[in-house]
Write the structure tokens for this entry.
Amino acid sequence: MNDNDNTANANATTEYRQWLRQQHGPAHARRTAERNAAFLLPFLKPGMTLLDAGCGPGSITIGLAGHVAPAEVTGIDLSAESIGLARDLAAERGVTNVRFDVADVYALPFDDATFDAAFSHALLQHLSDPLAALREIRRVLKPGGVIGLADADLGSGVVYPSSPGLERASEIAIGLREAEGGTPRVGRGLRELLFEAGFPHNAAFVQADCDGARETVERAAAWQAAYVEAPPFVARVTGLGIATEVELREIAAAWRAWGGHPGAFAARYWNQAVGWAE
């Protein structure tokens, strides 16, 4: 591969990541502690220091800060852009007991036993070694500290009625996450990961989102069809050899057909777990 090829690949990757942020950023910014961390809130108390690993734009982190005030919440993310957005949001809302730093979850810049609690939402699915990350989080938690995890299990949701095109869409989503170094089915194994990471006392739950009315089904179908037809997505998936352009066009058509079905229904699951450090 020559320098021109390397530059072209780098530009394509940058364009794809920018497109991803445009597609998913607004939804990420709408997440709240009251909804997305509700399973952890009963175990938090005022005065507990908390780490949010993979905080993204900080909307959940800032909500958590209200539940442990006056103690400080620390949000970390590998993306400097996300950390900038999180800091801006905290300033906009006047939340002062929260800080945000760029950091790697595999090598946290904190001493052992620093935090009383930890939280992570939609991070583990993007990691090649979720267990190593959880062991590092365990290192910075105090004995008896509590952790809350929420993550996806790609391919475990419900789409009715199904079709070969929609089944292929699920396969492509899983293949893409794997090709990018992630763990697409991590959600089903949260309890086992917690046990192996040093949280022997743990419990798991599930939360579901769904499209079950005409308006939400039509909106979801249009979004999914446009997603798989978007040039950055097409370039990424075909470049990795995961699917062909013909397949992607067929999948877009399958989503549109699903959106017009009178009985269409879809559900997505967030697997959740709480554990306590030894």
Summary: The first helix runs from residue 3 to 29.
